[in-house]
């Protein structure tokens, strides 16, 4: 990869920032982030994103090849590795040469066999109960310096923003769906029993309390049993 001027780098980062603000899926934005990492950071041969949820469930996303997914699977199998460490603990985890790495012996051995010698993992601040990391891999040792870490950290911030925006959208969609279903159930009750809006909602609320059932579930039952 040719070296980028600071101006070119700033322009590319601005382009990437705009993709977060446009109506695109989280997967599409994360794919842009990992592709941009291979473009902007010399020595990055492949990149991906690892998310680790409560209970150890994980997702391997936006790999620029199959390799990041394979490496994520290995880390989950061995329960060790730089991506997990960045997601769960450290902000930046860098390995200059896996042949000299002692922190994750099982993972490092297999990474070397696959041909990966350098690794750079950067924490994604995803909030809630999900941790994440942007993970960069190189086939050559000692691929990166502090400037590469800085660029990677900015890219990780873009990835985290996409994840947070996606979670907000999902929550908003869920809230709108809940409101609509409760409104539909109220309309059915109003028509069926010839009562007003407030009385219909009070009836739903009382049914919810008396049956120890969520209000949205009671509303769905009303909708499902409509004659």
Note the gap between the termini.
66 Å
Determine the fraction of residues in helical runs and give it as a percent range. Answer: 55-70%
At the fourth CATH level, what is the homologous superfamily of the largest domain?
Answer: GAF domain
Q: How large is the radius of gyration?
A: 24 Å
Number of domains: 2
Which residues form runs of ≥5 with pLDDT under 50? none
Shape: elongated
CATH architecture of the largest domain: 2-Layer Sandwich
Structure commentary:
With 227 residues, this protein is of the alpha+beta class. It has two domains: 1-166, GAF domain (Beta-Lactamase); 172-225, Orthogonal Bundle (Arc Repressor Mutant, subunit A). The protein has eight helices and five strands; from the N terminus they run H-H-E-E-H-H-E-H-E-E-H-H-H. It has helices spanning 6-21, 26-40, 67-78, 82-88, 105-114, 146-193, 197-211, 215-224, and strands spanning 46-52, 58-61, 92-95, 118-124, 131-138. It has a five-stranded antiparallel beta sheet with strand order 2-1-5-4-3, sandwiched between helices. Helix 7 (197-211) packs across helix 8. The protein is elongated and about 75 Å long. The protein starts with 5 loop residues before the first helix and ends with a helix. It holds the Pfam family ANTAR. Residues 162-223 form the ANTAR domain. This is Response regulator receiver/ANTAR domain-containing protein. It comes from Mycolicibacterium neworleansense.
